[in-house]
Amino acid sequence: MTTTLEPPGHDGKCGGKKRDGSGDTCTQPAGWGTDHPGIGRCKLHGGSTPNHVAAARLEQARRDVATYGLPVEIEPGLALLQEVHRTAGHVAWLGAKIAEMDPDDLVWGVTEEIDKGSGEFAGVDTTRAAKPNAWLQLYREERKHLVDVCAAAKRAGVDEAIIKLTEQQGALIAGAISQILDALELTAGQRARVPEVVPRVLLAIAGEAGP
Description:
Blueprint: H1 50-68, H2 76-99, H3 103-107, E1 108-116, E2 123-130, H4 134-155, H5 160-184, H6 188-192, H7 194-208
Helix pairs in contact: 2-4, 2-5, 2-7
């Protein structure tokens, strides 16, 4: 028997049909009152049945795998090559991101904000200081990592020509991603998720390309 978890359109709610004959669906949080909060039906709509508990645990395992991954058998040389590929893409993407920024924003940034909701001078006190922007720090770290992993790949005997091709492919992918994001005209909230989503997808693609 297949148990369906979180039908589309319920946005994290239980979604089970209410028993009052109204045809409405339950708006309790998914998994409310069960040992699998956040997933599937609530305790009032079958969430504690053995089949549903088993399905919820399977779904949680899928989510954990998507987040953390599972051990994969791989040749060390290929692992290094994949890391070169990923890091080259990250460096190219971060470089494009920094190129779009105002130069002053790279060395000056907000270090503290204090929201004063009451008192004579209510508002937000903002402290700025001369320090490298977080994007610039990430760019430097990824560049250093790229140099280190390339050196490790060469020491391991990975063909230099293959490394060069991989770097170029990473740059092309990063360029394509930047163009796609620009064309989509994302909202500020959507663009704020880009640093989280893009690296995760790139890692997933790199993993699928492995043996």
